[in-house]
Write a structure and sequence with these properties.
With 307 residues, the chain is an alpha/beta fold. It contains 14 helices and seven strands. A seven-stranded mixed sheet has the order 3-2-1-4-5-7-6, with helices on both faces.
Length: 307
């Protein structure tokens, strides 16, 4: 099985982890193993735990790192990082990475049903289990469809698209990616059709709903931060404003210290910052953008645990 993926912000992210040669590191979304391979170059005596929920990614990781005795590969959702670390015999990690994007393999493998450019069953399941995008499109109410398109896709034409879906599925179920993409295209004004593919936001919204990407993200960020050893760093790469706002807000809360009024002579609230931001958010440089167009919306945020 060919599993190709170009790691985004590769050197910026691995540099930001400040890898200790004998430390414990977790790649929460290991996928094609690009970030993991770079981490391993700097981890001669430590342990790397690779997590992914995609069974095809897990197969690829076993093949890619079969010669490495210090890699542990776990099929699970990174939302469960604390239980994964516990099962692997570790109380914490010195660095954690989470790339929240869809892998190139998932996008480019037509039968996975993530892309509106290729005709395939309407699937989008990262774990290849559970509810698919076709299930959502054909069973959610008009109000539910409109809500996820507005919330997860920030799609201003959500009412028209949701109405069109409901009308079409009354005639026959919507089963393929191109069926849905054409339906979306027909539901928006002509001017919108000329400004990039009009189905992009709809497909993003469905993918997020199918995989629960935002539903528990804030809780997962807290869990990853709790899993850090003091001095450890958490690096998260986001790809759209919804998830980036969640990460940015939670990082800010970790870094919030005393909240007493400034005129108090001493602190009485007892609060102190649990983390610090060692760097500003990083976006891809021009060279990376020219080499990998899919990196255009990526943003890296880093926090260091101080207690």
């Amino acid at each position: 099985m060919a599993f190709s993926h170009i790691p985004v912000l590769l050197h910026e992210t691995v540099d930001a982890l400040h890898i200790l040669p004998d430390g414990v590191y977790v790649d929460c979304t290991a996928g094609g193993g690009g970030h993991s391979a770079e981490i391993l170059k700097r981890l001669p005596n430590g342990t790397l735990i690779d997590i992914d929920r995609d069974p095809q990614a897990i197969e690829n990781l076993h093949h890619k790192f079969s010669a490495f005795g210090n890699v542990r590969i776990v099929q699970d959702n990174f939302f469960n990082i604390e239980s994964v670390l516990s099962r692997e015999g570790f109380s914490g990690a010195d660095g954690i990475l989470a790339d929240l994007g869809v892998s190139s393999h998932q996008l480019d493998t037509a039968e996975r049903g993530f892309s509106f450019h290729m005709d395939a069953p309407l699937d989008m399941r990262m774990s290849m289990q559970g509810m698919s995008a076709a299930d959502i499109v054909n069973t959610y109410s008009k109000a539910q469809l409109q809500k996820i398109l507005l919330t997860y896709g920030e799609e201003k034409f959500a009412p028209a698209i949701a109405a069109a879906i409901v009308r079409q599925r009354a005639i026959k179920p919507i089963e393929t990616t191109l069926e849905l993409a054409e339906l979306v295209k027909a539901s928006v004004p002509a001017a919108v059709r000329r400004d990039g593919h009009p189905a992009r936001k709809t497909f993003q919204a469905l993918r997020i709903e199918v995989n629960g990407e935002l539903e528990k993200l804030d809780e997962a960020v807290q869990s990853m931060f709790r899993s850090l050893n003091p001095g450890g760093r958490l690096c998260i790469i986001t790809f759209h404003s919804l998830e980036d706002r969640i990460v940015k807000k939670r990082f800010a809360q970790f870094c919030t210290g005393c909240t007493c009024p400034k005129d108090f002579p001493v602190c009485v609230c007892g609060k102190s910052a649990a983390g610090r931001l060692p760097m500003k958010a990083v976006s891809p440089a021009n060279q990376e953008l020219s080499e990998n167009n899919r990196s255009r919306s990526a943003k890296l945020r880093v926090i260091e645990k101080i207690k």
